[in-house]
Each structure stands twice: as C-alpha cells, then as structure tokens.
Amino acid sequence: MRTSLLAVVCLITLAALSGCEEEKEHIAPAIHDRDSISVMTSYGVNTLISDSGVIKYRIITERWDVNTIRKPSRWEFMKGIFFEQFDQQFHTEGYIQADTAWYYDQLKLWKLRGRVRIRNVNGLVYTSEELFWDGLRHEFYSNVFSRVVTPERTLQGSYFRSDENMSHYIVANSKGSFTTESMEKDDNSGNDAAKDTTQQQPQAPMRPQAVKHAKTTTP
Fold first, then answer.
1. What are the E-state strand segments in the chain?
2. CA–CA separation, 104 and 57 (whole Å)
3. Is 143 domain-assigned?
4. pLDDT at 148 over 80
5. Which pLDDT band holds residue 198 (cuts at 50, 70, 90)?
6. In a domain, 13, yes or no
7. CATH code (residue 117)
8. Is residue 34 part of a domain?
C-alpha cells in the first residue's frame, strides 16, 4: 500500500514539474534576403513625367512598386499601366497600355506584357502580348506575335521593330493585307514596308524626372 502511494506521489510530482516547463515558441527563421521587398509602394497614381524639362507623358496605374534592391533595380506595375503621350503644346499624341510592366531604370528599358496596345497620332494601332521599349535607342521591339493596323493596311508577324513614333517600322515573318494605293506608295518610297531582318537585342526607355500626385507607403 505504501509502495502504491509513493508511486502515485511521484507521478503527480513529475506531472507538476513538466507543467512548469517553459513553453517553446514556434517562430519561423528570420528573413535575411530582402530581395522581394519594395522600398516604396504608391497607390492610385496619376502623375506627369518630364524629359529634359518638358512634360511628355502621363502615367496612370493602380499600384507602383519601386525596388532598388533587386538586380537590376526596377519599377513594377503589376496592376497594369496606361501611358499618355503629349506634344510640346501638351496635346495628346497617343497612348500605350499593358496589363503588367517593368521599368529597369539603370538600363532605361521598359518591358510591357499582357494585352499591350499602342495608338499613335496617325491612327496606327499596335497590339501584342509582349513589347520592349528601349529609351536609349528610342525604339520599340518585340520577338513575339505582333499586329499592326493602319487606315491602309494590316500586318502581322513574329518580329517587330519601330521608332518611338511608330512612323517607321519593320514586321518580320509577316503576313497581311494591303490596298493597291498603299502598295504603290511602298514601291515608290520604300517606307514602312514589311521585310525580314536579323533580330537585335536592345536594352532601354524614357528618363523619368518628375513624379507628383501619388500616395506613398513605405513598408
């Protein structure tokens, strides 16, 4: 009887001691790689961009992230972007829009993706799923299916390259429809004709200098 009572006392004592042990917190390891964290996030952006002191663009986007830690550093527009382009009299010349965009500030290069659409002052409409805008060479280029529609013609091809005004462009591996009048003009001038070309890898776009009217949060 005494042995049984002693065993019960020992069990109760052990249970009490185990209940007094310090509880361990289950904490995830610290994150040392801050590569994915933006240094600035702006919401509801409607801002003007100047180039050499002249206002040339308006940017409208739902969210704008600036990440200077990732290599290369970049701006990210994961909720879509809309550019409006102005002439020197502040008249609208055209627009650019895309579902997603990245701007690599060190390379001066824009990468536009998902329902990319451009319209210029002459009524040309360009559509594609991916387009690069090189700010150093002042040109657009794409290595995926692209479509160009003007009042005179429709062109489609797997490679596209153009100046920033979309006034001189090349569509390689192309197919399309032309009016007789536009074909005669091309025979005489040789401008804006679709032709094969070797692919070239440029690297850059515009030089933002002024940012206004943006609500900013810093994580």
1. 40-51, 54-67, 74-77, 81-86, 92-98, 100-104, 109-119, 125-134, 139-142, 146-149, 153-157, 159-163, 169-172, 175-178, 215-217
2. 17
3. yes
4. yes
5. very low
6. no
7. 2.60.450.10
8. no
Amino acid identity for residue 10 in this structure: C
Q: HSE of 56 in the Cβ direction (CA atoms, 13 Å)?
A: 13
In 3D space, the residue among 109, 100, 104 whose CA is nearest the CA of residue 78 turns out to be 100
Residue 28, pLDDT score? 53
Residue with tokens 């040392």: 32
**pTM reported for the whole predicted model:** 0.65
The span from the CA of 111 to the CA of 205, in Å, is 9
Structure tokens at 69: 């830690």
196: which 2 tokens? 């094969």
For residues 122-129, give the mean pLDDT: 95
Q: pLDDT tens digits, residue range 31-81?
A: 555 556 788 899 999 999 887 788 888 999 999 999 988 889 999 999 999
